[in-house]
What we know:
The complex is a heterodimer. Chain A is α/β, with parallel strands linked by helices. Chain A has helices at 34-43, 62-78, 89-98, 100-103, 110-116; strands spanning 6-13, 19-29, 50-60, 82-85, 105-107. A five-stranded mixed sheet of chain A has the order 1-2-3-4-5, sandwiched between helices. The radius of gyration of chain A is 13 Å and the shape is globular. Chain B has a single domain (8-153), classed as Heat Shock Protein 90 (2-Layer Sandwich). Chain B contains five helices and five strands, in the order βααββααββα. The longest helix of chain B is centred in the N-terminal third of the chain and has 22 residues, at 38-59. The two termini of chain B are 17 Å apart. At the A-B interface, α2, α3 and α4 of A face α2, α3 and α4 of B.
Amino acid sequence: MQAETKTTVDRTSGTSGASIAVLRFSGDISSTSKDSVLGAWQSVNGTGPVLLDFSKVDYINSSGIALIIQMLMEADKTGRKVAAFGLTPHFQKVFTMVGIAKYAGLYKDEPTATASL
Amino acid sequence: MTTTTGTSVELRIPSRLGFEKVPMDTAASVARLMGFPPERIEDLKTAVAEACINAIEHGNHLNEKLSVVVVLSATADELEVKVVDNGTGIEKPPSKPDIDRKVHGEEDPRGMGMFLIQALVDEAEWVHDSKGNASYVRLVIRLDKEIELDKESE
């Protein structure tokens, strides 16, 4: 019943030319997504900024939100900047309600999110 | 719009994660028939999914021999959703999660579900049964008729 989470790791350049890791999620983000989500995060170890692409995500539940918070915990330890884009208006609201927006900027699209880092 | 007043829909799902999507989508369908705006339907979907996940995980402890029962009841201006499990329920909802404590590792990163339920619906009530026969959460979303009428006249 859970749609598999697929995460691809990409790279883009910020406005200053610095390399930015991009984690592109698709499917559901739920309790079964741990390996896909946290595995992708671990694959971009370092201290550079990270973009989270939710534009192909259909469903996020509280277990998925917990995985996103775990990524923010790791980012906070090393001072990494994180920005997210592609969330539906509903999940932008949910991310703001639970406080994620305090630790990751939420943007409507990739260029705006990239420019923020 | 289809007449839904007095309508009741009952679902029985296995206590398996992922099946929360069945009542989530059914609740969305009923709310759509009642004329709820899309943003309220999204709120309802998340609240119903979280209530079912709690029932599956904490009420029925993922025991697939036990079912979670979801009853949707529509009146002229509100939709009530009851999610019933075999657990003992909770005496009172937990306090609001603290994102700073979570990010700094001082609080479990999980535990957002009940907060989301309370924040996204007009009414949320947890009824516990110490015998573990039928604890339930009751959610209500209400149609704001003035807003809906304004939209229809536009």
